[in-house]
Amino acid sequence: MDTIASFTVDHLRLLPGVYVSRIDRIGAETVTTFDIRMTAPNREPVMNTAEIHAIEHLGAVYLRNRADIADRIVYFGPMGCRTGFYLLLAGEHTSESVVPLMKDLFVHIAACNGAIPGATPEGCGNCLDMNLPMAKWHAARFLEVLNGIGPERLHYPE
Question: Which residues neighbour 46 within 8 Å (Cβ) at sequence distance 6 or greater?
């Protein structure tokens, strides 16, 4: 069986950042998958499921409610390794072009003081597994990366 492209990225050199993971053509449509890497793989502790779950809810609702991007959001959700998130956008995009959106998203999460959208038994299959304070902490920490982001955090290591 062939190895998928994301398994060929040197995770020992990968830094927290925003990367184009892949660009797919599906018929006449194009989808860009972003690797929103919040922790250094295999070198920093991974995020716990409770904060990942809170970030997922806050992020998905925020992105799908932004008039300027809502119609291009395909998916926002966690990586299985718990080091970040995937963002899928309709169209072809660059890492550089999505950084302002990611800054807005993580400012929103870091500043959240209300209820987590959909965190009810009716709206979520595991609504008790949420940790807003830690989600905010991770968002604020990732904002430091985004605010000083350079090429080494926008393109996968060679």
Answer: 39, 81, 82, 83
